């Protein structure tokens, strides 16, 4: 799939009810963590942390923190990863209940930042190697470029990761297999919420909006060549070294990535 369509997503809308947004985020967190979607990026990310001498990941657009536990566990297995590695979750719409649950399970290695954070204008006091998982497609090209430019302007390393390879097969899965999984697994999502059951089974707004947003997310994704073009426009004088490509997970799906760190020649 070589084209990109920036269609409407419910999750992007300020008026989208918080209870439905939380339901979507809980589902994504569970699936990304259970399937280990982002494990393949650990060697690349560990190398970037080593180059930038960072021991903290600053996650932008974190949602409910989906996948961060598996990423942290995979990174800790890398020989170049810092021993005191930690991760700070941020989002324009913070998810304190979900983040508190992740913090408890990781003994504080992963924690949330309570105030809203705009990924295009990250406060200077929030340090660390910036990462964005499963969220870069939410930004139209001007905003995506601005997000990268803000990292360059502040001299922060950045990694963009999408847990798909942008294919018709993945759209087919989003329309068929994944909704069935959502209906079967929802009672096991934590933290438990009665509202999640109500809006999944009695009034199935969470599954319906999740299906729509999941399909649209694939249409919105930037392939590696477009990620490189965005990086070049965000860093016109070439301060950074940029890597973009795709990695295949052992069970089939791809992860699309862009990593930028300050060039060693700077």
Automatic annotation (TrEMBL):
Keywords: Membrane, Methyltransferase, Transferase, Transmembrane, Transmembrane helix
Gene Ontology biological process terms in this record: methylation
InterPro entries: SAM-dependent_MTases_sf (IPR029063)
The keyword Zinc-finger belongs to this UniProt entry's keyword annotation: no
Keyword hit for Membrane: yes
Transmembrane segments: 201-222
GO molecular function, one term: methyltransferase activity
Protein name (Swiss-Prot/TrEMBL): Class I SAM-dependent methyltransferase
């Amino acid at each position: 799939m070589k084209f990109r369509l920036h269609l409407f997503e419910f999750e992007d809308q300020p008026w989208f009810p918080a209870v439905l947004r939380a339901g979507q985020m809980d589902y994504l967190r569970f699936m990304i963590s259970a399937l280990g979607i982002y494990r393949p990026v650990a060697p690349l990310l560990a190398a970037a942390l080593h180059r930038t001498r960072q021991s903290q990941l600053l996650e932008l657009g974190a949602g409910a923190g989906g996948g961060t536990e598996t990423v942290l566990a995979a990174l800790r297995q890398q020989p170049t990863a810092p021993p005191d590695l930690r991760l700070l979750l941020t989002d324009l719409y913070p998810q304190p209940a979900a983040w508190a649950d992740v913090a408890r399970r990781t003994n504080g290695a992963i924690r949330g930042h309570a105030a809203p954070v705009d990924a295009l204008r990250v406060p200077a006091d929030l340090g660390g190697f910036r990462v964005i998982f499963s969220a870069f497609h939410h930004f139209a090209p001007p905003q995506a470029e601005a997000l990268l430019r803000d990292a360059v302007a502040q001299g922060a390393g950045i990694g963009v990761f999408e847990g798909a390879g942008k294919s018709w097969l993945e759209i087919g899965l989003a329309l068929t297999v994944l909704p069935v999984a959502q209906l079967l697994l929802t009672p096991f999502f934590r933290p438990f919420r009665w509202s999640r059951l109500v809006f999944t089974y009695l009034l199935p707004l969470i599954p319906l909006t999740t299906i729509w947003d999941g399909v649209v997310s694939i249409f919105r994704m930037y392939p590696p060549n477009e990620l490189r073009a965005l990086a070049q426009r965000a860093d016109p004088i070439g301060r950074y070294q940029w890597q973009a490509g795709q990695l295949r997970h052992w069970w089939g799906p791809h992860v699309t990535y862009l990593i930028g760190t300050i060039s060693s020649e700077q």
